[in-house]
Amino acid sequence: MARVIRLDTHAVVWLYTGEIERFTQYGQELLESEQLTVSPIVQLELTYLHEIGRLKVGGADIVGDLESRIRLYTVNQPLLAVVQAAASLSWTRDPFDRLIVGDALAANCPLLTKDEAIHAGAPLAVW
């Protein structure tokens, strides 16, 4: 039975664009073997990146495409649990990173991310 793993925002973008080679071998193995999930905060960050012109497609479209194409699931973690877990993450000032990591912590599941700051601050990060 596959375990659940959260995906960071850049991982979702790379899956959407088909850039699997950007993942490590271990990351690619996780993509093949685990139940892939995403926090709604990732969709919000994707929407923000679209609004500022860094992405050509909006967050709902990217997540919706991956939900149908690769069975990505958006989780429905209680916001209070996410905020409580994120409150102690003083190693980052990025609100999206803080909430995405808080979501993974509240769910007690790994977060697939290349982000070095997250790896330095969150032992649940894998790459």
What does the model show?
The protein starts with a strand and ends with a strand. Helix 1 packs across helix 4 (59-70), helix 3 (40-51) crosses helix 4 and helix 5 (79-86) crosses helix 6 (95-107). The longest helix is centred in the last third of the chain and has 13 residues, at 95-107. It has 127 residues and is α/β, with parallel strands linked by helices. The chain has a five-stranded parallel sheet. It has seven helices and five strands; from the N terminus they run βααβααβααβαβ. It has a single domain (4-126), classed as Rossmann fold.
Quick description:
The protein is of the alpha/beta class and 127 residues long.
> In the residues, how many domains can be counted?
1
Order of helices and strands: EHHEHHEHHEHE
What's the architecture in CATH terms?
Answer: 3-Layer(aba) Sandwich
CATH class: Alpha Beta
Report the structural category: alpha/beta
Give the CATH topology.
Rossmann fold
**Radius of gyration, CA atoms, in whole angstroms:** 14 Å
What percentage of amino acids are in beta strands? 5-15%
Percent helix range? 40-55%
The N- and C-terminal alpha carbons lie at a distance of 21 Å
User: Main beta sheet: strand number and arrangement?
Assistant: 5 strands, parallel
Uncertain stretches: none
Strand order of the largest sheet: 3-2-1-4-5
The number of helical runs is 7
Q: What is the global morphology?
A: globular
Mean model confidence by pLDDT: 97
Number of strands: 5
